[in-house]
Amino acid sequence: MIMEKETPKTEEEIVEEFYKQYKPARIGHRTETNPIIEAYFAKQFEEAQALAAKIKFPPDWENW
Amino acid sequence: MEYEFFSVGPKGRIKKVVRFIKVSTNVGDIYNLGFGDWDERTRSMNDSVTSNNGDTDKVLITVAHIAIDFTERFLNAEILAIGTPGRIRLYRMKITHQLVPIYTFFSISGLTKDNVIEPFVKDKDYIAFIAKRRLFKRNPHVNS
Q1: Does a structural domain hold residue B55?
Q2: Across the interface, do B100 and A64 touch by the CB < 8 Å criterion?
Q3: Who contacts A29 (Cβ-Cβ below 8 Å, separation ≥6)?
Q4: Which residue of B104, B116, B118, B129 is the best one to mutate when testing the A interface, meaning the one whose CB has the most A CBs within 10 A?
Q5: Which residues are registered as beta bridge partners of B40?
Q6: 3-state class of B131 per DSSP?
Q7: Does B86 contact A at CB distance below 8 Å?
Q8: Within-domain flag for B140
Q9: Are B124 and B99 in contact (CB under 8 A)?
């Protein structure tokens, strides 16, 4: 029996499959300001910035 | 840029807030993926990706869609994901088992405890992840 070779999926097909299979919750954009949330993310920024400054990127990072 | 969505489960509706915050590195700016739950009752935020609301995969899939949307608006943006050791373990597990198939859209690198970037290795401990976009297509699930 001759097996047909499976055609590799195109990027378009892979993306379509992802959207079909993995449905997100309904997403919205925040527009209101809230000082509690601002303070929370300010702290996250400090932590992230401290870590980001220490990251040792490879010389060819752009091509990764 | 900030996004929000709701986790819905036995604990009710929990508002999740995602914010991308620009941070500087020695190769330029990248965006930290900030994440938290807004508790309307106590009017406070907490840093928990799992709210024990029975929908962890849905939450992470939604965060993946948000990252996809963000990197379509800000081309070439690289995303840094850090967090508590528990959250990082959860991300690693989901990436390893492709339960949230972010490989479809991103190449993933891991940050070792020595602050060195390397291509993601399954089951290896990392302190953070960096995602670089590779496939592009408009996310139809995000409401502008």
Answers
A1: yes
A2: no
A3: B1, B2, B3, B4, B143, B144
A4: B104
A5: none
A6: strand
A7: no
A8: no
A9: no
Which residue, among B101, B97, B56, B91, has the nearest Cα to A17 in the 3D structure? B101
DSSP at B53: S
Range of the domain at B32: 2-133
| Consecutive 10-residue averages of pLDDT for chain B (144 residues) | 91 92 94 91 79 84 92 90 83 74 83 94 90 72 53
CA dihedral B55, B58, B59, B64 (to 10 degrees): 160
Query: Does residue B143 fall inside a structural domain?
Result: no
- Structure ipTM: 0.83
Rounded to 5 degrees, φ, ψ at B11 are: -90, 10
DSSP states of B74-123 = STT-EEEE---HHHHHHHHHHHHTTSS-GGGTEEEEEE-TTSBEEE--TT
pTM, to two decimals: 0.86
Give the integer Cα–Cα distance in Å for B108 and B129: 7
Place of tokens 């915050």: B21
Please give the tally of structural domains in chain B.
Answer: 1
In angstroms, the first-to-last Cα distance of chain A is 42
